[in-house]
Description:
The complex is a heterodimer. Chain A is of the alpha/beta class.
Amino acid sequence: MTLSVSNLSFSYGTKDALKGVSFALAPGFCALLGPNGAGKSTLFALLSRLFTTPDGRIEIAGHDLNAAPRDALAALGVVFQQPTLDLDLTVAQNLRYFAALHGLSGSDATQRIDRALTRLDMAERAGEKVRALNGGHRRRTEIARALLHDPKVLLLDEPTVGLDAASRSAITAHVHDLAGEGMTVLWATHLTDEIRDTDRLLILHQGTLLADGIAGEVTGGAPLQDHFLALTGPRAA
Amino acid sequence: MRWLPALRAIVAREGLRFIHQRERFISALVRPLVWLLVFAAGFRAALGLSITPPYQTYITYETYIVPGLCGMVLLFNGMQSSLSLVYDREMGSMRLLLTSPLPRWWLLTCKLLGSTVISICQVYAFLAIAALFGITVAPLGYLTVLPALLIAGLMLGALGLALSSFIKQLENFAGVMNFVIFPMFFLSSALYPLWKMAESSELLHDICAANRFTHAVELIRFALYSEINLPALGWTFLATAVFGAAALWGYDPARGLIRKRS
C-alpha cells in the first residue's frame, strides 16, 4: 500500500471535521467523493502536513508522516484546490522554483521540467507567462509541477473546479493515465461524472467514510449520482 | 536532499517579486527621503544636538536621523514581507512552500534571508540618494554598516515572520501598523536621542531604551562610523533569536496558524 490512513480524526475547536477515517490505497486512481464541507480539504491538509493531529496515523510510500515527515513529503505530489502559481513568472520558471524546493537544480531540473511538461502536452507553453494561460492550462501546469520529483502518491484537491467541460475531461483523462502508469492518485471531487466505474471510490460525508470500494460495485449498478445523493443528500439523514 | 537550491530559488523569487512591484520600491525609497528632506529640515532649527558617541563633532539633525531612517526602511520592509506572507497564505502559495520536504525552519530562514537581502538593497539606495543631497558618512562606514544592516534586518524580518503567523486575515494588518510599526518607530532613538527624550519624560525614555528597534538603530548608527555598540549588538541578536523562535512556533504544523482556515 502506498498511502494508508488509519483512524484519523481532527477537529476545529469543538467541530469535528474528521472522525476516525481509515483507508489504504495501492497504485491506481482513487476518487474521494464528498459534498462541500465533508472534510476533504481537511484530510488533504493533514496528508500534506499543512497541519498535524495526534489522533491517527498517515503513511506515505511506507514513511510515517509524523515520524519521518521529510521522507514522506518527498514521495508526495500535491495539486491544491486554490491556484498556487506565480502569475508573473513563466510556466518553466514556476516549475523551476518548485524543483528547487525539492532540492533539484541545474540540468537535472531542466530535464525533469521538459519531461513533466511533455507528459501533460504543455511543452510548447514553457516560455509563456502563467497570466496568459487559460484555466485548463494553468491546472495542467500545476499537475506537471506536482510530478517533477517523481512522487509515488499524487493528491489532487478538486482540481477541475472552475474549468469548462472540455478542460475538465482532458485533465481527468490525463490523471487517469498517470494512475495507469503506476502512480497512486487520490482525487477529491464532488462531481460524480469524473469517476469511472473501475475507479476505487471513497465517499466522505460529515467527516466519516460512508463507502470504500470499486465505484461500479459500491453503487450496485445504480448511477453514481443517485447513489451519492441517497447517501449524502438532504433525505439521507 | 540538497538545501541550497531552495535558498537560491526563494531569494531569487523575493527579488523578482520586488522588481515586479515597482510601487513598493518607490514608496520604500520615498518614505525615508520625505523624513530626511522635509521633516529633518524643519526640525533642524528646533532641536539642538550635543556631542554624544559615535559623533565626535556637532552634527546636523539630518545626519542624526540617517541611521534611524535606515532602520525605518528595514522595519517597513520586514512588515511588508510579513504582509506578503499573510497574502501568500490566503492565496495558497504558502502551501507550496510548506509541503516541501525540506525542514520548515530552513524554509522560513530562506524566506527571512530573501526579504533581508531586499531590505539591505533598499537601504543602500536610500543612502546613495542621501549622499546626493550631501548627507554622507566616511566611505568605510558604508562597508562597516553592512553586517549591522544584516543583523537588524534579520531581527525585523523575524518579527514580521512571527507576526504573520499570528495574523489570521489580511484585513487585520492595519492593526500591525498601528500597534507595532508606529510605536516601534516613534518610541525609539530613530528620531530623537534618548537623552533628549529623558528631558521630557523619564518613562518615555525608559520605554525607548527597552525598545528593540532602538538597539537596531544604535547598532546601525555606530556601524556607520565603523564602531561597534556591543550592548546594542547583544540585544539585537537576542531579539532575533526570540522573534525567530516565535515564528517557528507559529508555523509549527502541530499548533500553528494554517489550521484555522486553510
